[in-house]
Specification:
There is one protein chain. By secondary structure, this protein is mainly α. Helix content is about 30%, strand content about 5%. The chain has three helices and two strands. The longest helix is centred in the middle third of the chain and has 13 residues. The two termini are about 30 Å apart.
Length: about 70
């Protein structure tokens, strides 16, 4: 994304930018809604997914993570 912004004339330095990645925590519950096997599968996939900071090669010292645990 930073490369695309640079191409459009916006020069952002990753070390002077703060990144707010999406929270990635899910916890299956027995409440009505999604089937429990789907909730467990989704929670497993979330836990095993690559961290956004690794995928986008974001400097770890420039990341602020805010979030809460959501019961599915």
């Amino acid at each position: 994304m930073l490369t695309r912004l640079r191409e459009k004339g916006m020069n952002l330095d990753p070390m002077s930018t703060t990144f707010l990645p999406e929270p990635r925590d899910a916890d299956p519950s027995k409440k009505p809604g999604m089937a429990i096997w789907r909730e467990k599968l989704f929670a497993l996939m979330v836990r095993n997914a690559q961290r956004p900071t690794d995928y986008f090669r974001i400097p770890v010292k420039r990341v602020v993570e805010l979030g809460m645990q959501v019961r599915l």
